Amino acid sequence: MFGFMKGLGVTLRQLPKKKVTLMYPEQKPVWPERFRGVHRFIPDLCIVCNQCARVCPTDCISLSGTRGPDKKMRIDTYDINFDICILCSLCTDVCPTESILMSDTFELATYSRDNLYLDMHWLYENELAYERNHPERFVKDAEGNVESEKAGDAE
């Protein structure tokens, strides 16, 4: 009986306090800038150095490229298997051109594991969506093109 009264007392003390629960699908939480969600990818910056694939502890990144007429490597395919990706951010740390970054997207629930194998086109669309959702985090040049993220986000 005493345990029941003690539990009821805790419940009654919490009733007048402000609620901290969000109605999740309708109300999204505000994530900090350094939140590690699904990757963003900028294919124009990638030099196909393969460092991201080598450093990945789960070996979930695969990429290939060809040498163009100007003797520079160009990315052909960039795929990440999010079925086994642990979102450790090691691939973003070693990328010399910052072509792969983390976003605040995390909702990848699906009925089929085949849908978790994402290519560079999906990752680039995620980059564009991130830029649309967070314009305050990017610096624009004179023509209005996105140059880079603000210096406060880089280490």
Automatic annotation (TrEMBL):
<feature type="binding site">
    <location>
        <position position="95"/>
    </location>
    <ligand>
        <name>[4Fe-4S] cluster 1</name>
    </ligand>
</feature>
<dbReference type="GO" id="GO:0050136">
    <property type="term" value="F:NADH dehydrogenase (quinone) (non-electrogenic) activity"/>
</dbReference>
<dbReference type="InterPro" id="IPR010226">
    <property type="entry name" value="NADH_quinone_OxRdtase_chainI"/>
</dbReference>
<keyword id="KW-0472">Membrane</keyword>
<comment type="function">
    <text>NDH-1 shuttles electrons from NADH, via FMN and iron-sulfur (Fe-S) centers, to quinones in the respiratory chain. The immediate electron acceptor for the enzyme in this species is believed to be ubiquinone. Couples the redox reaction to proton translocation (for every two electrons transferred, four hydrogen ions are translocated across the cytoplasmic membrane), and thus conserves the redox energy in a proton gradient.</text>
</comment>
<keyword id="KW-0874">Quinone</keyword>
<feature type="binding site">
    <location>
        <position position="88"/>
    </location>
    <ligand>
        <name>[4Fe-4S] cluster 2</name>
    </ligand>
</feature>
<feature type="binding site">
    <location>
        <position position="91"/>
    </location>
    <ligand>
        <name>[4Fe-4S] cluster 2</name>
    </ligand>
</feature>
<dbReference type="GO" id="GO:0051539">
    <property type="term" value="F:4 iron, 4 sulfur cluster binding"/>
</dbReference>
<keyword id="KW-0411">Iron-sulfur</keyword>
<feature type="binding site">
    <location>
        <position position="46"/>
    </location>
    <ligand>
        <name>[4Fe-4S] cluster 1</name>
    </ligand>
</feature>
<dbReference type="GO" id="GO:0048038">
    <property type="term" value="F:quinone binding"/>
</dbReference>
<keyword id="KW-1278">Translocase</keyword>
<keyword id="KW-0408">Iron</keyword>
<protein>
    <recommendedName>
        <fullName>NADH-quinone oxidoreductase subunit I</fullName>
        <ecNumber>7.1.1.-</ecNumber>
    </recommendedName>
</protein>
<dbReference type="GO" id="GO:0005886">
    <property type="term" value="C:plasma membrane"/>
</dbReference>
<comment type="subunit">
    <text>NDH-1 is composed of 14 different subunits. Subunits NuoA, H, J, K, L, M, N constitute the membrane sector of the complex.</text>
</comment>
<dbReference type="GO" id="GO:0009060">
    <property type="term" value="P:aerobic respiration"/>
</dbReference>
<dbReference type="Pfam" id="PF12838">
    <property type="entry name" value="Fer4_7"/>
</dbReference>
<feature type="binding site">
    <location>
        <position position="52"/>
    </location>
    <ligand>
        <name>[4Fe-4S] cluster 1</name>
    </ligand>
</feature>
<dbReference type="InterPro" id="IPR017900">
    <property type="entry name" value="4Fe4S_Fe_S_CS"/>
</dbReference>
<feature type="domain" description="4Fe-4S ferredoxin-type">
    <location>
        <begin position="37"/>
        <end position="66"/>
    </location>
</feature>
<keyword id="KW-0004">4Fe-4S</keyword>
<feature type="binding site">
    <location>
        <position position="49"/>
    </location>
    <ligand>
        <name>[4Fe-4S] cluster 1</name>
    </ligand>
</feature>
<keyword id="KW-0479">Metal-binding</keyword>
<feature type="domain" description="4Fe-4S ferredoxin-type">
    <location>
        <begin position="76"/>
        <end position="105"/>
    </location>
</feature>
<keyword id="KW-0520">NAD</keyword>
<feature type="binding site">
    <location>
        <position position="56"/>
    </location>
    <ligand>
        <name>[4Fe-4S] cluster 2</name>
    </ligand>
</feature>
<feature type="binding site">
    <location>
        <position position="85"/>
    </location>
    <ligand>
        <name>[4Fe-4S] cluster 2</name>
    </ligand>
</feature>
<keyword id="KW-1003">Cell membrane</keyword>
<comment type="similarity">
    <text>Belongs to the complex I 23 kDa subunit family.</text>
</comment>
<dbReference type="InterPro" id="IPR017896">
    <property type="entry name" value="4Fe4S_Fe-S-bd"/>
</dbReference>
<keyword id="KW-0830">Ubiquinone</keyword>
<dbReference type="GO" id="GO:0005506">
    <property type="term" value="F:iron ion binding"/>
</dbReference>
